[in-house]
Amino acid sequence: MSGPSNVLCHQPPPKRWTNAGTLSPSGSGGRYTRTRTPRDPYGTVASSTRTAASRGSAPTSSAIAATYAAFIRLRRSGTLRPVSGGRNEGAVWSQSRMTGSIGMSLLNESKHFDSADIIGAMTGREVTIYDVAQRAQVSISTVSLALNQPGRVKQPTLDRVLTAADELGFIPKVRAVMQARRGLGRIAAVAPFSSYPSFSRRLAGVMAELGDSGTQLLVSDCEDIAVADSPVLASIPVRGHVDGLLNLGVPMDEKIGERLKNRLPTILLDVRYPGLPTIGVDFREGGRQIGRHLHEFGHRSIIFVKEVERYQFDSPPNLTLAGLRDVLGIEAVHEVIVARGTNAGREGVAAVLGDADLAGLVTAFVGSRDLVAIGAATELRRRGLDVPGDFSVVGVDDDPVAEALGLTTLRHPYEESGRLAVRALRTLLEDPAAPVGDQRLGLELIPRETTAPVSP
């Protein structure tokens, strides 16, 4: 059986042919480079060849065809097997023969190719979990764990596995079978439900809209979105166990955003990523409503208490703060950032009242969410101060506890946004080419007993 001695796979394709020449036996040290041709019917590899003394000419069509055909024969014969080489060295393949071997060194200046690249690109065979494991340099069990229980895998390893799956276009076997049918009849919803109880209201809207349609809803809780990545969100588009995804408010980096955009119909809520439809709430206008309300009561120096956020993005707290400053001015609204948790509001008040300059100016506190505002009001009263006589307090969300405590707040349309998200995702699933645009909902200021005019 004849075949090339070495194959050098290269991507992206070079602007010109390099190391070109004629096919040479393995003993010559010849190597091969690849480029893509616009009319390549296979969408695969066109190889040029060289010897140590021959360079510069473009390969002939017969050489290209011979290279491709030789590799196909090797693969179909079942005698081509990986023998050595790591990701940094190039994976070496060899055909065992009575008279010697044919090695194919997969080398590249910019990107290394291994067995999965050749399998997927040249033979058309379905990429398997074994290929992903080889690409990521992990065990089969680690790949399985990364796809099914991502929270149990260290973040660097998880990133490596998911990146390998992306690069290879890996589709789990169950998903491949179901794609031949009309879909799984299952969607996923992801949010930090345990960290933010208000997200359960959005989930209630999702469930109400699904009703008895027969669509299964897979609910996944993720860690606090401000302080940790979401391994659950990262793995969902690769696992292939759902038809679509509702991201109910989890910020994403570019890697996750691209994975969702390319692999799974997705609707975002209160977060944005280019190319993915978003249902948002106009928090900036909500901040303006709070600002106008406090301004009418004579407040001119405001504290905005916000919990620390890991991601620098247009988060609801950041937009609310911007709206407050639109009305009251940048100098009039002081931002206080505190640790996350039930004591956030208390800590914000303690920090402000411990600053003599601020304490003498401030007349109102605004919490980034109701729990923060309630904590602030509790701490003020614990210190013997009157709410709203000495300080007004405003929250955001209008959780049920806010009404019970008489807290002035912004009412968030959680349930409605959940319903709209399901409708938008259904549209995408029925017709992936359908124009599903962004939608924006408003907030409503609910005045209660924690705001009042500034005392003379």
From TrEMBL:
Segments forming domain HTH lacI-type: 127-181
Entry annotated with the keyword DNA-binding: yes
CDD domains for the chain: HTH_LacI, PBP1_LacI_sugar_binding-like
Low complexity biased stretches: 40-59
Keywords annotated in UniProt: DNA-binding, Repressor, Transcription, Transcription regulation
GO molecular-function terms, A-Z: DNA-binding transcription factor activity; transcription cis-regulatory region binding
Coiled coil: none
Chain residue ranges for the region called Disordered: 1-59
Entry-linked PANTHER family: HTH-TYPE TRANSCRIPTIONAL REPRESSOR PURR-RELATED, LACI-RELATED TRANSCRIPTIONAL REPRESSOR
Name used for this protein in its record: LacI family transcriptional regulator
Highest classification ranks of the organism: Bacteria, Bacillati, Actinomycetota, Actinomycetes, Jiangellales
